[in-house]
Amino acid sequence: MTDAAYKLGLAGKGEEKGTSLWMDSYYRLKKNKMAVVSFFYLLLQAAAAVFAPLLVQFSYEETDLVLGAVPPNAAHWFGTDDLGRDLFTRTLYGARVSLAIGVLAAFVSVVIGIAYGAISGFIGGRTDYVMQRLLEILYAMPFMLFVIILMVMVGRNIYVMFIALGAIQWLSMARIVRGQVIALKRMEYVDAARAIGVSNLKIIFRHMVPNVMGPVIVYTTLTVPAVVLEEAFLSFLGLGVQEPMSSWGTLINDGVAAMEVYPWMLIFPCSTLMLTLLALNFIGDGLRDALDPKVSRH
Amino acid sequence: MAVLDVKNLKTYFYTREGVVKAVDDFSFTLEMGMTLGIVGESGSGKSVSVCSLLGLIPKPPGRIVAGQALYRGNDLLQMSESQLRRVRGKKIAMIFQDPMTSLNPYLRIATQLTEVLAMHTDMTASQRLARGIECMNLVGIPNAASRIHDYPHQFSGGMRQRVMIAMALITDPDILIADEPTTALDVTIQAQILDLLVDLQRKIRMSVIIITHDLGVIARLSDRVLIMYAGNKVEEGAADDIFYRPQHPYTQGLLRSLPRLDVEHEELPSIAGSPPDLVLLKQGCVFAPRCPQRQAVCVEDRPIPIKRASSQHTAKCHWSADA
Amino acid sequence: MSALLRVEDLRVHFPILKGAIFQRRVAVLKAVDGVSFALQAGETLGLVGESGCGKSTLGRGIIRLYQPVSGQITIDGEDVVAMSADELKHKRAGFQMIFQDPYASLNPRMTVFDIIAEPLYTAWGRRDRNVVKRNVLELMDSVSLARKFIRRYPHEFSGGQRQRIAIARALALKPKLIICDEPVSALDVSIQSQILNLLIELQREFNLSYLFISHDLSAVKHISQNIAVMYLGKIVELASCEELFRAPQHPYTQALLSAVPYPDPRQERQRRRILLRDDLPDPTCPPRGCRFNTRCHKVVDKCYRDEPLFKDVGGKHFSACHLS
Question: Which of A60, B31, B307, C32 is 20 to 30 A from A147, alpha carbon to alpha carbon?
Answer without folding.
Answer: A60
